[in-house]
Design brief:
With about 270 residues, the protein is of the alpha/beta class. It has a single domain, classed as P-loop containing nucleotide triphosphate hydrolases (Rossmann fold). Helix content is about 40%, strand content about 15%. Helix 1 packs across helix 2 (about 45-60) and helix 4 (about 115-125) packs across helix 6. The chain starts with a strand and ends in a 9-residue tail after the last helix. It holds the Pfam family MipZ. InterPro entries: DNA_Partitioning_ATPase, MipZ, P-loop_NTPase.
């Protein structure tokens, strides 16, 4: 059975699609068979990335390692039993079509609470939650006092993950390995950065997730999107010498992949 990776939170602009693109492509480049789904049926940023990658490879005659992207299939509404949700059936059919011959299935969720996202979280073997290094984003996980030091209680997204964990436990499945990524961490040792670190470490112990390093804000991520490329593809398209920023970004991706500790993955790029 494929190991299912879900990239999700309920806030836009946290870097979910950027993380999805790089994790899926890194796994493919490491020799794993990867399937991919985008549950943001409106924007489909990850779906656009997969489309851009396919078109670029065709136009340039390249065969770059890639995840196999699938759209959610339509379902026959008349075939649904009373009370069945069509979105549940569409997601189940998409996962079933991939899991037999894939090592990993990566599911990119929208930045809002939807039925598809809720169900996807209950399927997650590994859950990746990108978070900008800000108490605005931290509020997605928990409410804190005015000083940002005392945690008052869990927020809506944490409660949704808790419900997903309960569903998995009832089904006899392994617990979700929940990894929260700190994206766009400031380079300087600012007071807010230190408070965020302490708050995340405190919350991690209370509700059960791991904290891992994510990506800093880099222009290269936006520049590569129209061609569906990642940092790992640059040498294959003729870039012989990486600049300092690209080298640093590549190291961030390496650190992220190691921190995820996915089964059978040896990070050697």
């Amino acid at each position: 059975m494929a190991h299912i990776i879900v990239v999700g939170n309920e806030k836009g602009g946290a870097g979910k699609s950027t993380v999805s693109m790089h994790v899926a492509t890194a796994l493919a480049r490491l020799g794993h068979k990867v399937g991919a789904l985008d549950l943001d049926l409106r924007q489909k940023t990850f779906g656009r990335y997969a489309h851009n990658r396919k078109k670029f490879c065709e136009s340039e005659g390249l065969d770059l390692p890639s995840a196999e992207y699938r759209n959610l299939p339509e379902v026959d509404q008349e075939a649904l039993r009373p009370g069945e949700n069509p979105y549940d059936q569409r997601l189940a059919a998409a996962v079933a079509s991939l899991e037999r011959d894939k090592d990993f299935i990566l599911i990119d969720c929208p930045g809002s609470h939807t039925r598809l996202s809720q169900v996807a979280h209950s399927l997650a073997d590994t859950l990746i939650t990108p978070l900008n290094d800000s108490f605005i984003d931290f509020d997605l996980l928990a409410h804190v006092d005015s000083d940002g030091m005392k945690i008052i209680g869990p927020s809506v997204y944490s409660e949704m993950v808790w419900n997903a964990r309960q569903l998995r436990a009832q089904a006899g499945l392994q617990p979700i390995d929940w990894v929260v990524l700190r994206n766009r961490v400031g380079a300087q040792q600012m007071v807010n950065k230190e408070k965020m670190g302490k708050a995340l470490d405190n919350l991690a112990k209370r509700i059960g997730f791991r904290v891992a390093p994510g990506f800093n804000e880099r222009v290269i991520f936006r520049e590569l999107f129209p061609r569906g490329l990642t940092l790992l593809d640059l040498r294959d398209i003729g870039v012989k010498q990486l600049n300092i920023s690209n080298v640093a970004a590549r190291q961030e991706l390496r650190d992220l992949m190691k921190a995820l500790n996915l089964p059978g993955v040896n990070v050697d790029f």
